[in-house]
Amino acid sequence: xxxxxxxxxxxxxxxxxxxxxxxxxxxxxxxxxxxxxxxxxxxxxxxxxxxxxxxxxxxxxxxxxxxxxxxxxxxxxxxxxxxxxxxxxxxxxxxxxxxxxxxxxxxxxxxxxxxxxxxxxxxxxxxxxxxxxxxxxxxxxxxxxxxxxxxxxxxxx
Length: 157
Hints:
3 helices, about 20% strand, 4 strands, alpha+beta
């Protein structure tokens, strides 16, 4: 492949750089990234010698790259863990590897007036119940007891 010369701008300065034919877009993209970092430096510090500006902008890009490499490594580790878990689940026929914790239960007493008092307790896992349901059920239980009392009075008279 033949070499071609491309003009790039970094930190307000123009540079002529040679690259292989067909690689111009890669060079221009890299130059834009370096220029963005140089612009940050120039806006914060002001004009500085060319070598120092290029060095600092390059170090800033290297720092970003190192951070991205760390995140990539962590993501790859997590993918490996998930693949291991998938393999385990497949080998067990889709069984869950660990027993789920016992859900917290709430008991709501409900009295039903009959000849023999009966107390009914309903256990519902807390995760399943919408917010405010316990209070609403307690109000309903009170209302039901009041209605049952009214019915008993009417039947007695």
